[in-house]
Write a structure and sequence with these properties.
Elements (H helix, E strand, L loop, with lengths): L1 H39 L7 H37 L7 E4 H15 L4 E6 L5 E4 L1 H17 L6 E9 L2 E7 L34 H11 L3 E6 L5 E8 L20
Parallel strand pairs: 2-4
Antiparallel strand pairs: 1-3, 4-5, 5-7, 6-7
Helix pairs in contact: 1-2, 2-5, 3-4, 4-5
């Protein structure tokens, strides 16, 4: 089964990496031709300002695709480092209420097709964790909720303090997850066989990486889903005074996210 999943992953990874790479190459060629039209100056009818503006827009598209490519490569590097135990955690106190509000604000800027609601009675929820890595987890979970939910639907984020822990629930109104998949979705190389998820790109490593990070911070990450659709991803992290991360804070070959 692992061999089959690995073969499937390699095929998918080559496709996912080639798509933005091809786009970057194409956009650069288009921008190059437009710049050449301006610098050539053999055609008096060329509007150099308009051509320069179009070239700039094309290069912006290339840059956007290059960032997508970088994210895919980062995921591959994260998986390698996690399996080798070489992920470096820069631990410090951080407020999850502020972190979640910032993440949701960013997602609102990235998509206008979904409604985001954040609910909490806590004014703060301080944990001892790696701020960049925790942000990576919530960006992945909320991003997944957007990808798997229909346009115009609601994505709810609830934060509660529960004893020695802080509990976050991220709920969507998407396609849902079969009961026998609820734990398998966190496996490395795993992609949902549901045909309704076929439009969602990526390498299928985000949930594996997210659970590994949360576990190393002494917390838990799990999922629930209703038969009628919709899913909820739960994150539980110990409050700062009770935190006992399971991974060392430093490592000789650690890495931070680009």
């Amino acid at each position: 089964e692992v061999d089959r999943l690995k073969t499937q992953f390699l095929s998918m990874a080559s496709h996912e990496l080639r798509t933005p790479l091809t786009a970057v190459s194409g956009f650069i060629q288009v921008a190059k031709r437009r710049i050449q039209k301006v610098t050539d100056q053999t055609d008096p009818n060329v509007d150099w300002k308009a051509e320069t503006a179009k070239a700039s827009e094309t290069l912006e598209l290339a840059q956007r695709q290059s960032r997508r490519l970088a994210r895919l490569v980062d995921e591959l590097l994260d998986v390698s480092r996690l399996q080798l135990g070489r992920v470096e955690l820069h631990l410090g106190e951080m407020d999850l209420v502020t972190t979640l509000r910032d993440t949701i604000d960013r997602m609102r800027l990235l998509t206008s097709t979904h409604q985001f609601e954040f609910e909490t009675e806590a004014t703060s929820a301080t944990v001892r964790a790696d701020a960049d890595r925790v942000d990576q987890v919530f960006e992945n979970l909320i991003g997944n909720a957007v990808k798997y939910s229909p346009s115009g639907s609601r994505i709810g984020v609830i934060l509660r303090r529960a004893g020695d822990d802080v509990h976050i629930a991220i709920t969507d109104q998407g396609i849902g997850i079969d009961r026998d998949e609820l734990d398998r979705i966190f496996n490395i190389f795993y992609r949902s066989p549901d045909p309704r998820a076929g439009h969602v790109g990526g390498l299928g490593l985000g949930l594996y990486i997210s659970r590994e990070i949360v576990t190393r911070l002494g917390g838990r990450l799990w999922a629930e889903s209703a038969a009628t659709g919709g899913s909820t991803f739960h994150v539980s992290l110990p409050l700062a005074e009770h935190a006992t991360p399971t991974a060392p804070a430093t490592s000789p070959a650690g890495a931070t996210r680009a």
